[in-house]
Amino acid sequence: IVQSCGFDPSGHKAVSGSSDHRVRLWNLFDVDAEGVKSLNVYNIAVFDTHEAWVSGAVMGHGYAVTAGYDRMLALWDTEVEVRNIAVTVKGKKKLAKKNFITAKNAASGPIWTSGPKNQHGFHGARILAMAASAHAKQVVTASADNKMKMFDVDSGVCVKTFEGCKAWVSCVAVCGEVSGSDWTEMVANGKSKGKAPDMAQAMGRRSKKSDRQTLAGYREVLAESGGR
Q1: Cα separation, 131 vs 86, whole angstroms
Q2: pTM value?
Q3: 72 close to 114: Cβ distance less than 8 angstroms
Q4: Cα separation of 154 and 75, whole Å?
């Protein structure tokens, strides 16, 4: 069962995460010498490092970030060489072994993995969803531990934890992107905690404030936090 899906900025590729613990990279369109697109869907590669359902998948320029029920994140190079897309085995077409990219192969495995095995203060329960910032330089995860966490895509470091929810956080969306000196400082400090009640107070409760006031409060908090 496909649990998550993300598209690259060009719209030519997609990445999907599944309950079989695998991530698949897909070609969607071919572009000829004159720049004309033609639909041509096929599986380019299989990324295999997660140990449970893959619940989040996003793409940037030339890379993908995935997250799973195993509480792990992984960064993948999506500019993989398209070679031997299919071989015939007993009359059926299958991906060639070279197109299976696993963590066991250091040369072609994930660029990094980040999780409870190599990072302190990680999620205490499964990751249920993930969203990327405007340019996919940061990702935010939502978890069954009632928390959200923000990660630096370049390094895999958790730079901020958001607390305050009283139950599972099952979805997340990101508006804009933190950049410049603000982001450099956040990555350098790492793992600082941001409390969700502060955001909730600024956004206001619908029973007390109008939608317009709620949006204004959100924009004010976003500006104070260095969001763009």
Answers
A1: 32
A2: 0.73
A3: yes
A4: 9
